[in-house]
Amino acid sequence: MNKDEEIRLEVIKELKLEPKISDPSHIKVAVKGGVVTLGGYVDHYMDRSTQKIAAERITGIQGLEQNITVELPADSQRDDLEIANSATNTLELISILPGATLKQWSRTGV
């Protein structure tokens, strides 16, 4: 087994063992020249970040490319108005600024 294949198997193992990753089965791992590429999709932004951290724990990695998309479950999706209102409410709760001075916006669910 070559070094790239060893790294690939170690990354897959690490992803499966990481308790903070809800479902690693949608992630594909490729390695070329020690550079790991993670591809596929996850259900939550936290999973995307955690997978990167988990993969970086493997020794021998020369680099990491993360091509993972986040596909939120239907019950977690919100439209732009909901996101903007939530941001405004949160800022008003944690800020001493009056609500009239806050300006928020959201575009395409981000």
Quick structural overview:
This protein has 110 residues and is an alpha+beta fold.
What does this structure look like?
With 110 residues, this protein is α+β, with helices and mostly antiparallel strands. It has two domains: 3-74, Histidine-containing Protein, Chain: A; 78-110, no CATH class. The protein is built from three helices and three strands, in the order αββαβα. It has helices at residues 3-17, 45-56, 80-94, and strands at 27-32, 35-42, 63-70. Strand 1 (27-32) and strand 2 (35-42) form a beta hairpin. Helix 1 crosses helix 2. The longest helix has 15 residues, at 3-17.
Strand and helix map with partners:
Blueprint: H1 3-17, E1 27-32, E2 35-42, H2 45-56, E3 63-70, H3 80-94
Parallel strand pairs: 2-3
Antiparallel strand pairs: 1-2
Helix pairs in contact: 1-2
Supply database-style keywords.
single chain; 110 residues
- Beta strands, count: 3
Largest sheet: 3 strands, mixed
The string of secondary-structure elements, in order, is HEEHEH
Distance between the termini: 43 Å
Number of domains: 2
Number of helices: 3
Strand content: 15-25%
Assembly context of the chains? single chain
Helix percentage: 25-40%
Q: What spatial form do the alpha-carbon principal axes imply?
A: elongated
Low-pLDDT stretches are: none
Average pLDDT value? 84
CATH topology of the largest domain: Histidine-containing Protein, Chain: A
What structural class do you assign from the helix and strand content?
A: alpha+beta
Our Rg estimate from Cα atoms comes to 19 Å
CATH A-level architecture of the largest domain: 2-Layer Sandwich
Q: In which order are the strands of the major sheet placed?
A: 1-2-3
Kindly provide the name of the CATH class of the largest domain: Alpha Beta
